[in-house]
From TrEMBL:
Record-linked NCBIfam families: mpl
A Pfam family it matches: Mur_ligase
Keywords assigned: ATP-binding, Cell cycle, Cell division, Cell shape, Cell wall biogenesis/degradation, Ligase, Magnesium, Nucleotide-binding, Peptidoglycan synthesis
Protein's organism: Caldimonas thermodepolymerans
SUPFAM superfamilies: MurCD N-terminal domain, MurD-like peptide ligases, catalytic domain, MurD-like peptide ligases, peptide-binding domain
Its biological purpose: Reutilizes the intact tripeptide L-alanyl-gamma-D-glutamyl-meso-diaminopimelate by linking it to UDP-N-acetylmuramate.
Protein name from the UniProt record: UDP-N-acetylmuramate--L-alanyl-gamma-D-glutamyl-meso-2,6-diaminoheptandioate ligase
Binding residue positions for ATP: 110-116
Length: 455
């Protein structure tokens, strides 16, 4: 079968392309910006990429057009597909029908921590010899790829497939959340806050979609739920038909000890111990969720904890990009205020009283709308200085950050932001760059400018 994928360079659609290619299909694709790292990964797989959405791509005559959710009405290629009456399908639906059918799907949903927890769970199963398939919205360092089919299970067992379950909408013609398509037997509900203000009116609208996911889990399935989240409790109160285990609470799965070395407790009884390199309470909770989910497919907690000792996280999760002039520069995917606060807290626990210079870009659709701008001073509370890229926003970043006083700076260009950060940085400082995009290559620019200043 020949698939032509629209929006192929997004992490999710690129993952689908890799899975389809591994399954033996011919795959081509297009995107508005054919950009690395996904473009490099796809070309290495032998997938031909086209820049732009030109109608002349109809000449490729694929068996099916797979549509990413970045594609909207008015897109010239999509309009040509509709006009010609050609067969098309969303990415999540193609995945469900051609990859997930017959598998034991373990889906990880939540506002924060999906990529990390999905990667943890996949690594636990890999370490246990289960050779799972997976699709992750990032590149787990333990695997080096964002997606793979995995190995078929022995007769009578379902092969595991671990998937990051995003609540964002499926396609312009299917406004359900992506995760509704996945039909998991094990579902992790990591947390739930308001996000994606471009498609959801309020938190209740997202809770409704999460309940749609709950409705798809069979009676023999398991829901692994953050017991600290009132929003998730409201989701379950709408109806629940599966075993439910909670984490983060004393009567469920909990932790005793520092986030880098802690005992795993099940109903108050120690069952495993995790000692690893990850930072922060959020990752401790992610680990509890992954251990509880892995138990549902037969991996003992002690074995899961042993796997986490060698877990190497995902690119762009407090990733040290380099050091110059005695200043360390980090990259992180955080963009929601809660994620920003959690990331700064994780670094603070690592560096103690050393200075943290937080550099961030409000790039997500929610942040561009200014829906959560009032939460930014709270999110950046533990940073010594904060630097914001305010270009292209429809709201005044300086006004939003005014409660921080002289600790906050706003610049409208990346170059000006780099200049301001370098002027403020001192040897021993930690510069934490946060964005869900490439941030204009700011990491390399900072390191180059810091090295030039030092030498």
């Amino acid at each position: 079968m020949h698939l032509h994928i629209l929006g192929i360079c997004g992490t999710f659609m690129g993952g689908i392309a890799a899975l389809a290619r591994e399954a033996g299909h011919r795959v081509t694709g297009c995107d508005a910006g054919v950009y690395p790292p996904m473009s490099d990964q796809l070309r290495a797989l032998g997938i031909d990429l086209i820049e732009g959405y030109t109608p002349d791509q109809l000449a490729l005559r694929p068996d099916v057009w797979v549509i990413g959710n970045v594609v909207t009405r008015g897109n010239p290629l999509m309009e040509a597909i509709l006009e010609a009456g050609l067969p098309y399908i969303s990415g999540p639906q193609w995945l469900a029908e051609n990859v997930l059918q017959g598998r034991h799907v373990l889906a990880v949903a939540g506002t924060h921590g999906k990529t990390t927890t999905t990667s943890m769970l996949a690594w636990i199963l890999e370490h246990a010899g289960r050779q799972p398939g997976f699709l992750v919205g990032g590149v787990p360092e333990n695997f080096g790829v964002s997606a793979r089919l995995g190995t078929p299970a022995p007769e009578g067992r379902r092969a595991p497939f671990v998937i990051e379950a995003d609540e964002y909408d499926t396609a312009f013609f299917d406004k359900r959340s992506k995760f509704v398509h996945y039909r998991p037997r094990t579902a992790v509900l990591n947390n739930l806050e308001f996000d994606h203000a471009d498609i959801f009116e309020d938190l209740a609208a997202i809770e409704k979609q999460f309940h749609h996911l709950v409705r798809t889990v069979p009676g023999s399935g398991r829901l692994v739920v953050n017991g600290r989240e009132a929003s998730l409790q409201r989701v379950l109160e709408r109806g629940c038909w599966s075993e439910t285990v909670r984490f983060g609470v004393a009567d469920g799965w909990s932790a005793a000890g520092d986030p880098q070395a802690f005992d795993v407790l099940k109903a108050g009884q120690p069952v495993a111990r995790v000692a690893w390199a990850l930072l922060g309470e959020h990752n401790q909770l992610n680990a509890l969720a992954a251990i509880a989910a892995a138990e549902h497919v037969g991996v003992a907690p002690a074995e899961a904890a042993a796997a986490l000792a060698t877990f190497r996280n995902v690119k762009r999760r407090l990733e040290l990009r380099g050091e110059a002039g005695g200043v360390k520069v980090y990259d992180d995917f955080a963009h929601h205020p809660t994620a920003i606060r959690t990331t700064v807290d994780g670094l603070r626990r690592k560096v103690g009283a050393q200075r943290i210079l937080a550099v961030f870009e409000p790039r997500s659709n929610t942040m561009k709308l200014g829906t959560m701008k009032s939460q930014l001073p709270w999110a950046l509370e533990q940073a010594d200085l904060a630097f914001c890229h305010g270009g292209g926003l429809g709201w005044d970043a300086a006004e939003a950050l005014a409660p921080m006083g002289g600790r906050a700076r706003v610049e409208d260009s990346i170059d000006a932001l780099v200049e301001r950060v370098v002027a403020a940085a001192r040897p021993g400082d930690h510069v934490l760059c946060m964005s869900n995009g490439s941030f204009g290559g700011i990491h390399a620019k900072l390191l180059a400018a810091l090295a030039q200043r030092a030498g």
